[in-house]
Amino acid sequence: MLSYLQPQLASESMLAICSTSSDESNKLTYPNEEDTNVHFNPVSTGIITTSSSARIPYSHPHHHHHHHHHRSPVSFVYGHAPTPTYGFGFGFYEDMSPFVDTTRSPYSFIHTTKRSDPNIDVKLENMDLWKRFAALNLEMIITKNGRRMFPTFKVSITGLDPTSKYIVYMDVVPVDNHRYKHHNSQWMITGAAEPHMPGRFYPHPDSNSTGAQLMKQPLSFSKLKLTNNTTDQNGHIVLNSMHKYIPRLHIIQAVSSSNNDTKLSMGPLDNVNIFIFPETQFIAVTAYQNEDVTRLKIDNNPFAKGFRENNGHANRKDVKSVKRHIDDEYDRRLKCNDIYGTPESSKRCKSSSGEEDQTPPSRVVPTSSTIDVPDSTTPFTDGYENQFHLHQNQLYDPNLYASPYSRFAPTYPFTYSTMASMGPTSSTNPFTLAAAAASRYSSPYTFSAPYYQHSN
DNA sequence: TCTTCTGCCACATTTGAAGGGG
DNA sequence: ACCCCTTCAAATGTGGCAGAAG
């Protein structure tokens, strides 16, 4: 492995990252049980953050003494998630009781695989909604052409270097090695999982931005799509139906190329930060299994308003009713038009980014975020091709990294065909490289080594 | 038989081009 | 010319449903 690396990158840190598929390396990357002095106790009164990711001090395997100042006063317990035998609980909890209601737990564990910059913190924006779904066992529809996630994965980031540029992207990885089925209103395991198709990474539209820009407003991954089409050519994330997954957020600090200020490149893999929110776990399905999940989606997803009770499908085949509905819509638009003069109403009537309307119908007043939150997707050109083109021209300097990683790329079967036609091959695509990098310290099947943060 | 998947549908939002006023 | 707002229509995002597929 070492011989594949360019000299300047064949650092000790690279060693640690590249070899983590083994148990030995896990001990290097994660604090092991000897490092902890607090045992996980679910009955404890300790309450930790539930809306924000916990801070995990990262200690370089070979430089512990250099990084002690990064350790937070919080103690951690390293727990190996037991293999769940039934239910849809969250890892460790299944040890104690099946079908855990995650919303009642005062704990939240962070399932992070790497956090190289301890200053970076990430908060899941719509945590309340995620938790309501998690309590029901969230299902995400996957389709041949790709389906968006709902709720939308939306985060706000703090602690970035304001002037440095970052690459921010998402992927979705298996939570366990099981295939599930829904039977008698319950999820249960039916067998072993199908192999996961790795390497599909979704770069955030604002990825080519400075830390200041990225921290300015929440980052929404609303346009990410999930598919079950293994031959997908659109760069969507490929999942297996009836399998359990969790999204991951990756933040990589970019490094300026020395001879060209406008080109940036992914830094050493040391700069990778990964964040996982257990509340965002879901089972991929081609059709909803639990009607409570369906109901909650309909009630909160603006695109599904047509299925809401009072204007919903009970009347869909009633022509008169449909016409009346259309007239109502016309009236509504007229009203909207009527009050366009006031700035406030103007904003409300303007198109919003959709996921902002996640308030249940019973809740009348939207939060101030409806008005204040900028649409982070504005500069998005809505095409992976353009994104990669952007990276090719402005962000990614192939000369800097093509060589060390090109040896890794062949281990990844997937290539962006659209990307290939743009110039760089999969071996020089920064996101393919990132995928290879990420997989080296976190194979989807070995990442069941969660941390449970426990307040002191 | 049973479970899972697909295509099409009605209803809704979003987008972006075109037009108008300042 | 420019910018901001409005309008409008096409594109796109939803879950239901029936039947196909396995």
TrEMBL record:
Q: Which InterPro entries match?
A: p53-like_TF_DNA-bd_sf, T-box_DNA-bd, T-box_sf, TF_T-box
Q: Which GO terms describe its molecular function?
A: DNA-binding transcription factor activity, RNA polymerase II-specific; RNA polymerase II cis-regulatory region sequence-specific DNA binding
Q: Name one GO biological process term.
A: positive regulation of DNA-templated transcription
Where do the record's region annotations for Disordered lie? 341-373
Keyword check for Repressor, yes or no: no
Q: Which domain of life is it from?
A: Eukaryota
Where in the cell does this protein reside? Nucleus
User: Where are the compositionally biased (Polar residues) regions?
Assistant: 359-373
UniProt keyword terms in alphabetical order: DNA-binding, Nucleus, Transcription, Transcription regulation
Pfam families documented for this protein: T-box
| A Gene Ontology cellular-component term | chromatin
What name is this protein filed under? Answer: T-box domain-containing protein
